[in-house]
Design goal:
Helix 11 (299-308) packs parallel to helix 13 (328-340) and helix 32 (719-737) packs parallel to helix 34. By secondary structure, this protein is an alpha/beta fold. The longest helix is centred in the middle third of the chain and has 19 residues, at 461-479. It folds into seven domains: 6-101, Arc Repressor Mutant, subunit A; 120-256, Rossmann fold (3-Layer(aba) Sandwich); 269-364, no CATH class; 373-442 and 453-470, no CATH class; 480-485 and 503-678, Tetratricopeptide repeat domain (Serine Threonine Protein Phosphatase 5, Tetratricopeptide repeat, Alpha Horseshoe); 714-800, no CATH class; 809-900. Strands 4-3-2-1-8 form a five-stranded antiparallel β-sheet. The chain is 56% helix and 7% strand. The protein is built from 41 helices and 16 strands. Keywords: DNA-binding. Residues 3-97 bind DNA. This is ATPase. Residues 3-97 form the OmpR/PhoB-type domain.
Length: 903
Amino acid sequence: MPDTPLQFGPFVLRPGRGSLTRQGVAVPLGARAMSILHLLARSAPRTVSNADILATVWPNLHVEEANIRVHVSALRRALGQGHAIVNRPGEGYSLATPVVPASQDDDALPAPAVPLIGRESDLVRLDRMLAEHRLVTLVGAGGIGKTSLAVAAAARWIGAASAGPAFVDLAPLIDPALVADAVARALGVSMTQAAPVQALVDALRERPRLLVLDNCEHLSGSVADLAEQLLTEAREVRILATSREPLRIAGEALHRLRPLELPVAGLPDATARDTPALRLLLDRAAANDPPFEPAPEEIGDLARLCSALDGLPLAIELVAAHLGPHSAAEVLVNLGEHLARPRPLPDQRQPRHRSLQAAIDWSFELLRPAERSLLLRLGVFRAHMSLESIVAVAGAGDGVDVDASAQDGAPLPPPLARESLAELVDRSLVAVTLDGAAPTYRLLDTMRDYASRRLRETVWEDDVRRCHLQRVHQRLDRLRTAGPAEYAQAWRDSLLDDLRAALDWAFSPGGDPALGVRLTAAAGQFFMQTSMVAEFRRHAERALVALAATPDAAAEMQLLGTLGMALFHAEGPGTAILATHERALELAGQLGDLAARRRSLWGIWLYHFGQGQYAEGLSFAAAYRACTPAEDDPLHVADRCTAMSLTYLGRLAEARVYMDRVLARPAQPQERVVGQFQFEPRVATRALLARTLWLQGLADQARAAAEQSLEEALAGGHALSICFSLVIGRCFVAQMTGDAATLKDGIARLLATARLYALPRWEGHGLILAEASAFEGRRGHIDLDDAMKGGAAHREALAWLGLRLPPDDEILLPAPIWATPEMLRLAALRGPSDRAPGLLDRADALARDQGALAWRLRIALTRRRLARDAGERADAARALDAVLPCFTEGFDTPDLIDALHRP
């Protein structure tokens, strides 16, 4: 589905993310219901027939129309009041409310983990504090409901600022250095390696925004540093933090969250029921299967139970799950025994944890041995868990030589693991999400901390963590041939959090560095597809150190292949890139890995291309072709490399042969799988074709190709492909055809995309184009000396745009390229007048050899201008005679308008 957010009534639908929110709060929907809603929303107010719904939602399946009624009924229940779904008997369904594009900045807030009961006064106070202070920290014990309250408070701010609230869950993070990255991900801002926090400041400097930073306590130092800088330099930002302790920085306002109000002894039953703590207990117990309905004589015991739990919402919810099978009196007695036991607390600064610890311990000990074992094993996951992954981790460690029957954390066979999971869900120890194609599961943060701590006490921890790492590895392997939709789903499932956790364990003192190296190598494509270049480099450097102690040629080869590309986008075509790919090529030869050999040859081609060594690059394109039959080249790498090299060498007609061959083949789904080869093939080829068509004097066709390339790039959503399409195609053609509006739009898109995905080389292209066109009405906003260091593409752009020409005698060195005729023409205009004719003769001869009719026209226009200035009217009149008749289109472009204007 296209990721165009749609708003109707209080709802915002993001089809590409598979998310729906109501006033910022997530609304869980199944995949079929989401598809139906998207179909109705994009068709509104038109009625969609049952046949169209079946064809869209259940393609190639025979499904009864009754299924539509069932899903629409469930959809209406999920949406509640304001759903606006109308059934038109005999016709179909429609969404009878205006549907408009929604703000891209309106980020969804997570659904609260527990109902927000008894917090009305806290919400009012938070509203007032957020209006008066730019940093508010919600402080309280674990399990007291800080996250639920923060989400509810943030939801009330939707629409109050120019951009919606952004929610950042810091609980899965272990490394304090990744705090800024987590905030950036929530905001859609990618980080630059040189100044990560500054990238955030720049993105937020003039944009009102409420940031919700959840679970800050274990990273309080880093969070405090980041918050202080944001508050100092981004004056429109407000921060709502949740933590077990204050951040302790200037300007911080604290709201200490107290436990829920408890029933007072002696209150009448009806009055006691209305106290927040007892309301929550009864609400959650009523959701049990079967529902718990207390007898009148049990209200007193239930009230005392709330008091014993100190009014902590999470503790109340855990205990409520056991009501029904156990009476209120039984629960009170058993829990009292746990409360009486002296136990060391994981955090001695939070004495209120004793009641929560007792509730968790009591709930844990009520579980059957298999359920206890599964709960502990689930502590290795940092994010969402599939049933398949849970079953795998549950069975890890069968080879441990102990009496498993008496051990918590023992391995479980698959049937018992699935049965135990269902029991943990029923007891509110595991949360389940039903808004995707298959259920996913997750431990609440407090339960994950408990399970992870208890797992460390068992003999199976390393086996379980090793299995978790292998599951992450398998998920990455499945993504190797996946498209953008699968990567988006992996991102939504927070695969990154589990990947980081697995890598941290692997490279820890008790971990398995060999597995860590292989996982890092396998993760390369994931990091590149999600444009997290800087983080991949950090992991890769750690893996390379480990490789010195535990050599692994295959992993090293795979790691180096991706690292070379990461270095290219971060630093440009330096010698380190060449060494990286040459080492990978050497290893590929040793291992007889043909696919890796191809990737290495492509990497070496890319290095030479980036250096402007187009003839040398052409030889490596030929080497790639020699070992790659067409059927093994679905991304058309051989033809694209060859076409690029030939185009930049100025051999335009030859290059067109390879471009036409790529575009003549029927498009295949796998072409959207970019892999290690940077760009979507048809997008890149059309962009290059657009440039070539303009050079050949076919301006109308060039504009059409440039627009088609960008449309396809935007539909795919791949950042590198979008940048390539803009620089090589749309911006170039707009610059040359004098289309100022299109050029301005293209530069803005390019800069935004490059900054969003931390692509400094492509940002450099945008800045050079902006400088040449006085974008935003200013010049001199880049350092030309620095821009010259950005590789051949930057140096050439500075030259043919007239910003920094090399000396005349260097223009043809080391060899002429596609833009050399334009450089010579500009040199003729700027140099001594006696040298101009010779420079123009050389430029025209070279343009004629290239078949670059557009350059020849510019050269002829320059001849006419110089002859006119010299008073040579006859020469001025003849200057265009040999070129102008060759044009068949583009007569609305500035060059041809000028040429047709006879003085």
